[in-house]
Specification:
This protein is an all-alpha fold. It has 3 helices and no strands.
Length: 92
């Protein structure tokens, strides 16, 4: 059986160098598109959206708590149980 050829020697990996390109000119359109920022709200309406979300979240939590109390009350729980039993009885 002939001997297998020896593998070729490994070449060293290239050393990374710093990029040779120059940064984009601020006057070019592509640079402006990347750094575009919406003007911020100034004056009395600054932060209004955050306050609206906070109030909406609190209202939703309060409504969820109210629904939980109603659904877990005795009369509503028995009503829902009766509806489920009737539905299962009609299906089976």
């Amino acid at each position: 059986m002939p001997a297998s050829p020896s593998p070729a020697p490994l070449s060293p990996l290239p050393i990374p160098t710093a990029p040779t390109t120059t940064p984009p000119d601020p006057a070019t359109k592509s640079h402006r598109r990347l750094t575009f920022r919406r003007p911020s709200r100034q004056g009395p309406e600054a932060g209004t959206t955050t306050a609206e979300y906070a109030i909406g979240t609190l209202a939703a939590c309060g409504f969820a708590a109210l629904l939980y109390k109603i659904v877990t009350s005795g009369s509503v729980a028995s009503l829902l149980s009766d509806i489920v039993h009737k539905a299962l009885g009609a299906a089976g």
